[in-house]
Amino acid sequence: MRKVGFIFDLDGVIVDTAKYHYLAWRKLANELGFDFTHDQNELFKGVSRKRCLEILLNIGDVTATHEQFDRWMIDKNVDYLEYIENMDASEILPDVPRVLKYLKERDMPIALGSASKNARPILEKVGLLHYFDAIVDGNNVTKAKPDPEVFLIAAKNLGVNPLDGVVFEDAVAGIQAANAAGMISVGIGDNQILFEAAHNFNDFTEMDSGFLDGLRALT
Ligand code: BG6
Ligand code: MG
After folding, report:
1. Residue 171 has pLDDT above 90, yes or no
2. Is 11 a residue of the active site?
3. What is the mean pLDDT of residues 47-71?
4. What is the pTM of this model?
5. Dihedral, CA atoms, 19, 25, 26, 32, nearest 10 degrees?
6. Is the Cβ atom of 200 under 6 angstroms away from ligand 1?
7. pLDDT tens digit string along 117-137?
8. Which residue has the least CA distance to atom 8 on ligand 1?
9. Residues 117 and 149 in one domain
10. How far apart are the CA of 118 and the centre of ligand 1, in A?
C-alpha cells in the first residue's frame, strides 16, 4: 500500500534555534567589526553553514583566506553549540509534539530533512528523536536547499514515493526545495514570505487533525 511520508525541517519548524544561529553569527560579525541585523538573519534560514558565512562576509565586505574562512566556520559553530548546550523540551515550538504523536499513532512514516549538521543532538536534547524513522541532515547531502536532494533522500529512506511526500518548512529555500521535489509544501510562518508554499500556517497550533487526515488520504 502506498503511504504518505511526512518530512519536517528542524530549525524554525520543530525548535526555535534561529535565534541561537543569529546570536552566533552576530558575535562573529561584531568580532570582524560590523553588525548583523535580525532582518539579515532571514537570509540565513535553511541555508548551509558555509553559504551563511559567504553571505555574512559579503554583508561586512570582508575578504577571507581559506584558513580564516575555515576558522570562522568552526568559531561560529563552537559558539552555537554553547548556546544550545542546555536546550530542553521547553524549546520545542507549540504543538509540534501533538502533530508528531498524531502521525505516529496512525503509523505514518516521519523523517527529518534539515540543512543542519547539529540536527541529531538537538532532537536528542529535546526528546523527540524517537518519532523519526529517518534523519537526513547537513551531514548527508551534497547540495543545499533549494535543491531538492535532502527531501528526495528522506523520501527514499522512508520508502515512499517522492510525489507522496509532505514537507513542513519555515524557509523560502526549503519551500522551493519541497516544490522542486514534487512534494506538497506546507509553510510554517509568515505567508507573505512563504507565498510559494501549497499550504501555510503561522504555527502548528493552527493545524487541526482534519488537515492532517486530508494529507494522509492523498495516496
Ligand atoms: C538550517 C538553518 O536548518 O541549518 C540555517 O536554518 C543553518 O540557519 C543551517 O545555517 C546549518 O546549520 P548548522 O547547525 O549545520 O550550522
Ligand atoms: Mg528551517
Report:
1. yes
2. yes
3. 97
4. 0.95
5. 180
6. no
7. 999 999 999 999 999 999 999
8. 45
9. yes
10. 8
Q: How remote is the CA of residue 85 from the centroid of ligand 1, in Å?
A: 16
Q: For residue 106, how far is its CA from the centre of ligand 2 (angstroms)?
A: 25
| Closest atom of ligand 1 to CA, residue 12 | 6
Beta-carbon-side half-sphere exposure of residue 90 (alpha carbons within 13 Å) = 3
In angstroms, rounded to a whole number, what is the distance separating the alpha carbons of residues 217 and 179? 19
Tell whether 209 and 111 lie within a shared domain.
yes
Nearest ligand (C-alpha, residue 55) = 1
Averaged pLDDT, 70-86 = 97
- Distance from C-alpha of 215 to C-alpha of 87, rounded to nearest angstrom: 31
The residue contributing the CA closest to ligand 1 atom 2 is 46
Residue 2's pLDDT band (cuts 50, 70, 90): confident
Q: Do 123 and 170 reside in the same domain of the chain?
A: yes
CATH of the domain at 106: 3.40.50.1000
Residues 75 and 113 in one domain: no
Site to substitute for ligand 1 among 36, 42, 49, most atoms within 8 A of C-beta: 49
Ligand 1 pocket, residue 116 CB under 6 Å: yes
Element (H, E) at 110: strand 110-113
Domain span at 45: 18-84
Q: Phi and psi for 196 in degrees, rounded to 5?
A: -80, -5
Nearest ligand atom owner, CA of 187: 2
CATH number of the domain enclosing 77: 1.10.150.240
Residue with cell 534555534: 17
